[in-house]
Every structure is written in C-alpha cells, then in structure tokens.
C-alpha cells in the first residue's frame, strides 16, 4: 500500500496470530465461549481468543498436567526457547476482528511464543483491537512501531516474560479513534486468579504518545500510559510517555483478592514490605515484581493513580465498591514514584525538542509530532539494560535520541511514508542532530573540510 488508504480505516482483515509452546500461567479451566476464551482449556493449554476450538492448531502452550484435553496427544513441558520463526520488516495494517465483547483478534497476537522466535522491525497500523497482545511466552521484540490503533498499543498477560526495546507508539486523533485505550496494559492473569508465574517482561527505551483521551467507554476504560492490574509485574525503564490523562495506573484493592497470593499489582510495586512478608492493604509484598523507573511522563494530568479503570473523567470513583481503590497517590507513594524511582513529570507539551501534537486531514499531516527529545534525556543513576545478547546500549530515555541521530524507522515504516513524524527522518546535513541544518552545522563541518576519512 502506498499510504493512500486512510489511517482511520480499521478491521479490514483479522491480523497475524503466532502460537508456540513457551511458558504461560494458565491454570483455570473454562468452557470456551463461542469465539474462544481467555482462560485455559487445561493446565498450560490455551485457546487463543477469537478462535473456535476446532483443533490443536488453534491452541497455544502445552498441557502440563491433568486428564488429556480432547485432541492432545500427551502431557508435556514448556519450551521457553521455542522457535516460531522470523518476523522482520513486516507491516500489518488495518487489522482486527471483534467477534464478540472480550473475544477479538489483534493486529499481532502471540500465544506462548518462545525466545527462539525473532520479531524485529515490525509495525502494526490502524488495528481495530490491541495492536500487539502477548498471552504468556518469552519472545523478545525490538524496533517495533504501533500506530493509530483503536485499543491498547501493547498488552501483555498470562505470565509473559520477554524483553522489549525500541517500541514507538502513536495514538490516532480522537476524531478517528474515539474508543482507544491504554499505551501499555499490563496483566498477569485475565481471570484474576493470581496464577504463577506472574508477567514480568523487561521493557527499555520506548516512547508512547497518547491523544489526550479523558473519558472512558464501555469496552475501553483505560485512560493511562500504563495500566497495571491482576497481579501484573514487569520492568519499564528509560521510556517516555506523553499526552495521556493518567500516567501509571495501578490496581490495588479488589475485595477478597487483596491479600491472596501476594496481593495485586500495587503490592508488586510498592517498595515498603510488611513484616512478616505478607501483603496488606497498606504495604507491598517485597517482590518488587513491578518496577517503573527512570521514565518521563509528559503532558500527563495524573502521573500516578490507583484503580484508574474505576475513575470517571473528573477523577472520582464510579462506584462505592471501588472507592477505596480509586484515587490519586499519597505522599509516600508519590515520593517513591518521583524520587526513589526517578520518574520525571513534565507539565504540558514543554519537553525541549519533543512534541506530541499533530494535525491530520485524511493521510496528510500538516503538523507533525516529534519523538526525539533534544538534548537527549539522561539516564544517570538509572538501571542499565541487562547484558544478555538482546538489549543494545542506549544511554537515553525513549525510543529515539536526537543526540545520536538514530533513525531505526528509516524509510520502510508507514509513519515515514506518511511523513507523520519529524526529527527521526534521515538528514545527513544536520550534523548536530538538532532537527535543522543551520550555521551550527556549518561550524562543525568547516574545520573538517579537506580532511581524510580513512
């Protein structure tokens, strides 16, 4: 496609589904809905949502115990190094099929996909449901863009524990996509059973741009850059989140589940454990399974909230049952968020070199956003990415650095075809990477004129 098909068009076809045999935390057994279920057919064995249960080709994971489910040959064990192939330089556009509420096919659906699989330089554009959703698995992803989708940009669940670096997400404008949801939706068990293992992915150097949505809808209530619920964990570090109503929204107190199996996502995040190490309504569980550190939150109305899905557009609780869960952070929590965890809050659209606004008419962008802060955002005192053969050294926050002139979107990405962003396009004459070619670049070049590059 040449960029003339409207970015407001969604759901033209289903999307891509990849299934594997890596770890998930499915333990509950339910009768599948008409179009699939989010819980297990048997321990370790799932039916991908949106699919009919017509055979093993629609299932993911491995049945690890219990009486054999119909069609399964034998019990087995997970293979976290499972290889489902290679997906590189692929653009998935105008995807998504919503078969019934809670049963949708995403732009890219990954069920128990193992780390032997390669997913790099891909994009999902204008999806009707989540752009990318992971149900368990250990697969890694790098150089990913998620553009103009109608739901979450990235949704992980059921014990997903892979690595992600250089993820760029850009919401559509509200006119074209009024029902969009979170930047990241972090779950550990969609059935709220606190299954083990928890979802604990590691995410570095990503940029998520929202569109300022302030009122939730029936199916998409999320208003947050990051919504963490159902016992979710994960490390989200050195990223930039912009133009969301809420920043980090953490579920905390959900009735009788509050203390079960170590508590909810809030207990995984709060750094003050109780003694003995048992979760309570006011202290963390000591696991620190959820770490959100060294990120910038730009133009975010409520940087840290609890029970965000229960909040009305004015920040008040929707129901009395959720009243104790909903609300803005208290002093100690806010101190952890800003001082201990080194998250930076920037009021409005005022981060130098960075601009989350754009103006679109059809596929023409008369004003473009800029995801490259200038100067680059420092990571002093912040955790460094693991040295594990996957992560690359990136001493800055966000998916791009104007200082280093890196443009991994290059000319293949749809955002570059449309000219939807500025600051990341290749510009060989911009020697100091400030977004313009001017006298400063000449002063860099002039002393070097006539010298050899050998």
């Amino acid at each position: 496609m040449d960029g003339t098909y409207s970015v407001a068009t969604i759901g033209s076809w289903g999307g891509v589904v990849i299934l594997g045999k890596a770890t998930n935390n499915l333990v509950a057994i339910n009768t599948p809905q008409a179009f699939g279920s989010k819980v297990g057919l048997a321990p370790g064995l799932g039916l991908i949502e949106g699919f009919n249960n017509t055979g093993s080709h629609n299932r993911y994971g491995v049945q690890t115990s219990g009486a054999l489910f119909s069609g399964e040959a034998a019990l087995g064990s997970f293979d976290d190094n499972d290889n489902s192939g290679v997906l590189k330089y692929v653009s998935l556009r105008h995807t998504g099929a919503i078969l019934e509420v809670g049963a949708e096919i995403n732009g890219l659906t990954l069920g128990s996909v193992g780390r032997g699989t390669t997913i790099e330089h891909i994009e999902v554009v204008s999806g009707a449901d989540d752009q990318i959703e992971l149900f368990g698995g250990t697969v890694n992803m790098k150089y990913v863009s998620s553009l103009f989708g109608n739901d979450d940009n990235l949704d992980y669940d059921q014990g997903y524990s892979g690595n992600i670096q250089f993820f760029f997400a850009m919401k559509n404008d509200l006119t074209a996509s009024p029902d969009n949801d979170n930047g990241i939706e972090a779950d550990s068990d969609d059935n709220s059973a606190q299954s083990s293992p928890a979802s604990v992915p590691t995410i570095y150097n990503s940029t998520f741009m929202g569109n300022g949505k302030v009122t939730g809808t029936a199916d998409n209530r999320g208003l947050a850059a990051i919504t963490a619920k159902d016992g979710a964990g994960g490390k989200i570090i050195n990223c930039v989140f912009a133009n969301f109503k809420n920043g980090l929204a953490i579920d905390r107190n959900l009735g009788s589940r509050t203390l079960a199996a170590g508590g909810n996502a809030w207990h995984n995040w709060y750094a003050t454990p109780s003694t003995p190490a048992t979760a309570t309504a006011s202290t963390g569980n000591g696991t620190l399974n959820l770490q959100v550190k060294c990120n910038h939150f730009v133009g975010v109305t409520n940087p840290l909230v609890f029970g965000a899905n229960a909040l009305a557009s004015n920040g008040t609780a929707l129901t009395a049952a959720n009243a104790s869960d909903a609300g803005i952070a208290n002093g100690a929590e806010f101190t952890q968020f800003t001082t201990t965890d080194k998250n930076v809050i920037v009021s409005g659209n005022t981060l130098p070199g960075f601009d989350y606004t754009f103006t679109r008419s059809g596929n023409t962008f008369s004003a473009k956003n800029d995801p490259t802060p200038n100067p680059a955002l420092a990571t002093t005192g912040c955790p460094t990415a693991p040295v594990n053969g996957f992560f690359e050294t990136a001493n800055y926050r966000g998916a791009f650095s104007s200082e280093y002139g890196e443009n991994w979107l290059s000319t293949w990405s749809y955002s570059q075809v449309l000219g939807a962003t500025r600051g990341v396009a290749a510009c060989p004459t911009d020697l100091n990477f400030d977004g313009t070619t001017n006298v400063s670049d000449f002063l860099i070049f002039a002393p070097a004129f006539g010298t050899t590059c050998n």
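The chain has two domains: 1-19+83-423, 25-77. The first helix runs from residue 265 to 269.
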